[in-house]
Write a structure and sequence with these properties.
The structure holds two protein chains of two kinds. Chain A contains 14 helices and two strands; from the N terminus they run αααααβααααβααααα. Chain A is mainly alpha-helical. Chain A has a domain at 38-255. A two-stranded antiparallel ribbon of chain A has the order 1-2. Chain A is globular. The two termini of chain A are 15 Å apart. Chain B has two domains: 1-79 and 173-269, P-loop containing nucleotide triphosphate hydrolases (Rossmann fold); 88-171, no CATH class. Helices cover 41% and strands 22% of the residues of chain B. Chain B has helices at 42-49, 72-77, 95-101, 111-115, 123-141, 157-170, 187-203, 215-221, 239-244, 246-253, 256-268, and strands at residues 4-13, 16-26, 31-35, 57-62, 65-66, 80-82, 175-179, 207-211, 224-229, 232-237. In chain B, β1 and β2 form a beta hairpin. The radius of gyration of chain B is 20 Å and the shape is globular. The chains are: A mainly alpha, B alpha/beta. Chain A binds chain B through residues 6-8, 10-11, 13, 189-190, 192-193, 195-201, 203-204, 206-208, 210-219, 225, 229, 271, and chain B through 50-52, 71-73, 76-77, 81-82, 84, 88-93, 96-97, 100-105, 107-111, 114-118, 120, 124-125, 128-129, 132-133, 136, 167-168, 171.
Chain lengths: 356, 269
Amino acid sequence: MDMKRDYYEDIEVFSSGTVLFWSIALFVFLFTLPLYLSSYNIYLFNIILVHVILAVGLNILVGYTGQISLGHAGFFAIGAYGTALLMTHLGLPFFVSIIAAGLIAAFFGFIIGLPALRLEGPYLAIATLGFGLTIMHIIGRWDIFGGRMGIQAPPLDIGIPQWGLSALLDSDVKMYYLILVIAIVMVIGARNMMKTRIGRAFVAIRDDDIAAEVMGVNLLTFKTLSFAVSAFYAGVAGGLFGFVLGFFDPFTFNLILSIIFLVMIVVGGLGSVLGAVMGASLITYLQYDLLKNVDEMPYLGDALVWFSRKFFTVIGLENFNSIMLGLIMLGIVIFEPLGMFGIWIRIKKYWKTWPF
Amino acid sequence: MAHFKVENIGISFGGIRAVQGVSFDVRQNSIFSIIGPNGSGKTTIFNMISGIYKPDSGRVVLDGENLTGLSPDRIARRGVARTFQNIQLFGNATVMDNLMLGRHIHMKTGVLSGFFMLGKWTPCAREEVRHREVVEHIVDFLDLQSVRDQFVSGLPYGKRKLVELGRALALEPKILLLDEPSAGMNTEEKDDLRIWIKDIQEDYRVTILLIEHDMNMVMGISDRILAINQGLKIIEGTPAEVQKHPDVIAAYLGEEDIDAHDQEHRDMV
């Protein structure tokens, strides 16, 4: 048991030697990953990291502040289109574009946050749902956004090519390092923010908004701030996602995506930065890799195909992956309401008290 | 000029006049109690002072500044803190986090400086540590060391009452509104609470407004008492004056048999 000597240790990122050791081990693993993985798997990891950024942001809104959003695909889209268009049309450098796109998303988040002062629960869900769908359709009808045909992401140059400082990231591996660094900064930043006055005010609004207000928390400021911060995360994630895909259209950012984002944080654990990271990783991995061809897996796939042919249709059910994903979600929510973060806490407790 | 003044305050809910024209003055650093039967409007007065309800008429003035009609967070910033009758803490946060929320209005950290809290020397971390020190004094004062890092929702009732008191204290209020702080406490806890309230008055130099049903406590620690019934003021005066007033005896302390009933009720609680 470590004794604390200093109040700062309560809020430190690496609160003990053990945490520091494993964090470094994780960083070393992540930074050397391209040495062990195939190109497709690096592509998969890029998507995972993008989703991690988004899920951490969404968890600030849903898990910490207790507001709901069914429109995060909209902020994601604003980030993707914003970054790509600012680079192609205005010729802005990558970092300026992605931060600007994030701020545009944050502005929309602020606007959507205003009705949240009066709307709660299902009503807020409908309002944000409306936003997500509207954004998708506006983009689909506007020529500058490429309409329904979608647009091509510009070459990812993180330097300032106009000044001759070109740094072109032309492979998934190079892109991976960029996304990894941004993801680490965003995750640690979120974790820091949640340890300060800002995060406490969010939690206070979630748990008891009247008491929060009586203690001096301005609900207007902090509810809209939560929406704005969350939307900024979604915007930055979207900006990166555009380059990962290379090509995207309005229907990339559909309603199902917004719901999958919610699934990530519920499965990972509401109100926990680490939970969001774990949930985004697991769900993305399941969706893009493990369950993609579940009917071709040995034994399990055969059993599923046989089962569906026997009981449902002659040709067998489509979308096994969705069915399996649904079952896994159901299982986690029923057996571990705190999500993967809850499982993590129990494992930690087990090792700390081992062998008792 | 009076330190804290409520003038002719009144509010109705759909035709029911919950509080009608109640006025009182509170001296700096005194303990002022409001008593009255259930439903007489005591908590409603607190809700109007802290801005949860907007009064239909009248004014609330603290140190010459009109608080009437301000939003609750603005009123908090002007130095009014309160506890609630039915404990309103942030259940899924630790005791420490609940107390730290009391420091909210004294802290400045914004999104960016919070995001980049990368070391002990950053302004945000320094501010955080400074306020944790302040809160640690309150933890010591209220004897909460053993539950410091526990989640509030798992704590026993008496501890949660104390955490709520600590959270209000952390705001460093000029005036502290305590809504039935001893409800649900046993005799021993009540004795401790009584000492704490006295200490808060003396050490923290806070003016205390108290709603309380325990007559021993009210008569023992109050400087002045306001008795109300059905939203109307009966009398305001020293404990001795209030105790003797025939209307108070009739309305609140009651006749012989009502008193016995009241005692029984209190024992049940």
